[in-house]
Amino acid sequence: MSIKEWIRLRNDLNISETDEKFPKYSYNSTISTLIIQFMPSPVHESITSIFRRGFNAAQESLPYPLRTRITAVANQEFDGFGGRYSGSNKTPDLAVEFKNSKGDVEPKFVLEVGFSETYDELVQDARMWLEGRNDVSILVLAKFEETPKYRCPVRRLDDEDFERLGFSEASKLRTSHFNLENEYGLAIYKGFTWVGQLSASFLEIWKKDPMTGLATRSGSRIDLLTAANPPQVEFQLSDFLDIDPENERTIPFQWGDYRLLIKDKIQALAMFRCQKMLKDRARLEDIRDLDYISSDSS
Q1: Partner of 243 for a Cys bridge, out of 28, 144, 173, 247, CB 3.0 to 4.6 A?
Q2: Residue 207 β-bridge partners
Q3: The pLDDT value given to residue 255
Q4: What's the mean pLDDT in 256-270?
Q5: Phi, psi of 179 (to 5 degrees)
Q6: Are 144 and 269 in contact (CB under 8 A)?
Q7: For the segment 35-45, what is each residue's pLDDT rounded down to a tens digit?
Q8: What gap in Å lies between CA 240 and CA 244, rounded to an integer?
């Protein structure tokens, strides 16, 4: 899709003015690609919450008015990309904005999380943020992979076989109904798998190379599944903000919480998928009932 086509579509759908949170539309002008983003999965939140809490803790420890210069925002659309990314826009999973000494608000930190998104697509995101804007200092890329990829496990059951299983109503499902076979999956309910095994969960830190201006991975990939100790992901407040030495802070990311969070979020994702299945089947039944009434009345 060309930039001209994207602008026409955005205007036709009134995308820029809508108050709807999802879906979100992002456009990468370098590859002429429109990306439609739906509601992030609960698994996304296992990572975004760690970073959001860390920045919030650092912010609250600062004196007023310095702490008012930091704001964490989720799922906010950003324009203002330049160079070969001119005309692009992007909605990150998390951005932390800092107000500089001139009063300009800049998204100095960006987090992009991929579950259904591929690693290569996340790398494209990193390049767009770091090469297409002058104000982004650090981008963290987080990738999850599920094995096997999810497909509704009861999709082939007829109504009679499905009814025999005795599923709870969607509104009565709870995360505790879904049993985890291992620390990172599988999530099982009624003998069916609703979330597979998390076969990959890792972070990468990306920065702009000061010589070439190109986005470059900084350090090694950080594996969240096999790390015996909490991952060493640390940033200083001065990485993002010009501050006096007495206000310097190490941003405290509580990685010990991650293993607890990810278990809860796997169960939450399983519940969400099962609830969606139940709602979809109920809608199909309603449609069949309407078809029956219509044909009977004629």
Answers
A1: 247
A2: 138, 216
A3: 86
A4: 91
A5: -90, 135
A6: no
A7: 555 556 889 89
A8: 13
